[in-house]
Amino acid sequence: MVRKERIRVLKEGYKAPGPVAYWMSRDQRISDNWALLYAQELAMKTGEALAVVFCLVPEFLNATVRQYGYMLDGLREIERDLAALNIPFFLTTGSPDLEILGFLNQHHIKALVTDFDPLKLKRQWKKDIAKQLAIPFYEVDAHNIIPCWLTSPKLEYGAYTIRPKIRRLIPEFLEEYPKPQKHPIIWNLKRDRVDWGKIKKNLSADNRKCELRWVEPGEKAARTALGQFITDRLDVYDMARNDPNKAGQSDLSPYLHFGNISAQRVALEVVKGKVVGKSRDAFLDELIRRRELSDNVWFYNDH
Asked: Which CATH number applies to 1-180+196-303?
């Protein structure tokens, strides 16, 4: 079961018989995803079908076709892997405050789960959706190891102020994940397959030609990159990470940013590994304390 501390109720709503939906946004993966696990938990309790929906905003924060291409290739992998779990994947295009509501009404969804994001714009989308919902709406922090609102109830001013709070909670929350199950209730409602070529063609993002990307997208590629980092570079991370003449970085930033891999999984694998001492401590400090500090700042700073 997903810890209740990881879950916030955005709208109480009225739970009637009907399917459950996970609105995937920040955490674009199947494994090690507390939001997906909680959505399945809700669906299994009442014997309902489960679906995953992603809303693609055609133009977002000056992102180019490179970022969109990377993200869409990862989502295509998710669609394929969810099918093996009897969970359909839907992709809508447009403004989430309109598209998600349309999806919920079209498919008679009776409970909605989404992942946590501290960005003001995304929080506003959720507020706008919640105002118009009569069904329960839940938010699950699947991005941070410790839920952002639990780490601290206020804005922290530096890593030195958040460290003791994280140190106190990390033994409790750095836990192993359960695996998502093959969903026993089949989705019987109408479902159109995603036309990935058409989606890419209709993007409003800057589509000027750019060189080939240096990183392969997706959940499986993220796991491979993590293994390579632990084996080949973690032991020199402390000394090499700031030297531009050396390959000393983890190269995990794109995977963490798009949620292809969870920071919790990365920390678990690093802690299990053979590397100890300054390099491991330096990496975990950036992965956990400094990274979760940034979410704290975005979440609590109104400006």
From this structure: 3.40.50.620
